[in-house]
Amino acid sequence: MSLLEVSGLTASYGAAQALFGVDLTVDQGEVVALMGRNGVGKTTTVRAICRMMASGGGLRFDGVDLHGLASHKAARLGIGLVPEGRRCFRDLTVVENLVAAARPGPWDVDQVFQLFPRLGERRQQRAASLSGGEQQMLAIGRALTTNPRLLVLDEATEGLAPLIRDQIWQAILRLKTEHGMSILLIDKLVREIANVSDRAVILERGRTVWTGGIAMLTPEVTSRFVGV
Amino acid sequence: MIRERHLNIGLLAGLLAVALWAMLADQPFTITLATRAVILALAAAGLNIALGIGGLVSLGHAAFFGLGGYVMGVLAYHAQTYTPLELGPFSIAGTKSMPLIWLAAICVSGLAALVIGLLSLRTSGVYFIMITLAFGQMFYYFAISWSAYGGEDGLSIYVRNGFPGLNTLVPIQFFGICYVILCLVLYLHARLARSPFGLALNAARQAPVRVLTVGLDPTRLKLVAFVLSGAITGLAGALFADLYRFVSPTMFSWQMSGELIVLIILGGVARLCGPVVGAVVFVMLEHLLGGLTDFWHVWLGVILLLIVLFARGGLIGMVSGRAVAHD
Fold it and tell me: Does B202 sit within 8 Å of A72, measured CB to CB?
């Protein structure tokens, strides 16, 4: 049984249907990339998985039907979201951001500082005063201190400087190789995705149109469905 | 700039020093004024948990202040008339014991805050303000029509309630009781603000949707803060009633709720000792300007306006400088 099972997922914004049938699975310890052009429903899929919007179709996490669960209850089941646009608690310090959301488990503040030493150096600094890259690290760290079983990263490297982006990709790789973390990630950087992911799922117009191992993600496939 | 921690210690020490000086100088009225300031600070400190950390602008906290006062008034009234308090099938004896009255005031106002919070926290923003105001006014009009306990005229208690080992009729001793309670509540506030619960509550104030995605329920966090806040304000109400040995529906009035918010804004929202500074300034203005003109609130309004315009961190923010989330 997969950790996350999504089958025929549908979702709408009012009268406008955004998802028409998304299928994807994430197994324990697996990194799956969710890809596609802008506006195909990647973030909507994440929002539905995290119960931030109503949806239809099959949606199970570790065998538990997620439909009908409130967002915070889905998070407590073990789904840790790093939302698009960082969204840290701006008026709290780095440490306070990490402590506010912390739940018991192997990931604590010190573990996060080991993963992102830059955050450790700025532990008493307010989140609002951090750079974009540091805020992104903090958003990942905050999700980790909830001790999730599945980490969902929505555009984790968007708009960041190449150096910072590399640090974040290295951290994601460490989460996979050293900690065996199950990850569902959305990004547009094919080369980096290929470095860390086991499989890819490609969406088009709110539907899953391609699923396969990362080795099968050829330039032809990405050119056809992702546009890069 | 003075560090806020040092400023807080200095403020509390100064308040104690004024009361001790008044005792040595045989100025019982000054001690009563200081006690009034301490009790108002305590009530506002309760509200500061909901407003300062949780961002809950409650215009109905007078309900809890009044409930605390009436719990004291009703229990003491039955004790002094040697009649039991009949509550349906239950018959409860009155009491003149402060600790028992405090416990009852905390329980009753906390329970009321739970019910009001459960209903009010379904809303937010201006609707939350209006619904809490409506609850406050419900209690106000109920107290006015509650003729068994004085109705509009209020209820007088002949003798101040007792505390084991102390003579509470001695002003400095009653001041001491209130002062110790205030310090304990401020300590609780300081610990709470830095605890995971306080940080989560602060986060829920900043971004309620974001806290959902990390597994926190903002409504539950705010409800706990609201209940705690109401219970502390209720305790202050019981002490306030004991100070004047009198309770009346004005304790429930919306002006009382407004005054508590004014005290916090004067001192600084979310500042630990903001309510203390606000209460001291308020009582001083009330006493000094109130002796010169009946319209002293106008001057209070001017001061409040200046602070809101030019000192967003309140008087404490002006002196200590360090910004907090609400500045």
Answer: no
